[in-house]
Amino acid sequence: MNSLLEEALLLTGHVDNAAIIRIKDGAVKGKSPQFSMQPFDWMSIQHAFEKPREARIMDAGVTLSDAGYRVVRADTMAVYGKNSSSSGIIICRTHQYYILGTYVAGMHASIAVEAVEKLADYLRKKNK
C-alpha cells in the first residue's frame, strides 16, 4: 500500500503526507514516512464522518499530529479541512478505508484533493 500512496499521491508534489487507514479499527495499512497519528486523531476522523454537521461547526473539527483543521466540507464520503498556516487535510472514505492526504503552504489544494479523490474512487471500484 505504501507504493500505491507514493505513486498516486506523493509523486504529485502536492500531497505532503498520506495514509490508508482501515475504517473498522483505525489500523494504518500504508503511510508516508513522516505520517503519524495519535488515538485522538483517529477519534476526530471518525467523528467527522459520523457527525459531519458537528465537525463543520467546531474550530478544530479534525486533528492530526497536534494540528487542528477547521472542516470546510464534510459528508459521508469526504472531509476537507484547513488550518491557519495554509495547510490542509483531505480524507475520503471507501468501503474499507479512509484515504488521507495533507498539503502545506506552496502546494495546490485542488491538486491534492483531486489525487486523494482519484485514489479513493479507484479503491471503491475494487470494493476496498
TrEMBL record:
Key words, A-Z: Actin-binding
Cellular component, GO annotation: cell cortex
Matches recorded under SMART domains: PROF
GO molecular function, one term: actin monomer binding
Domain of life assignment: Eukaryota
InterPro entries: PFN (IPR048278), PFN_euk (IPR005455), PFN_sf (IPR036140)
Any Pfam family matching the protein: Profilin
Family per record: Belongs to the profilin family.
Protein name: Profilin
Species name: Geranomyces variabilis
Gene that encodes it: PFN4
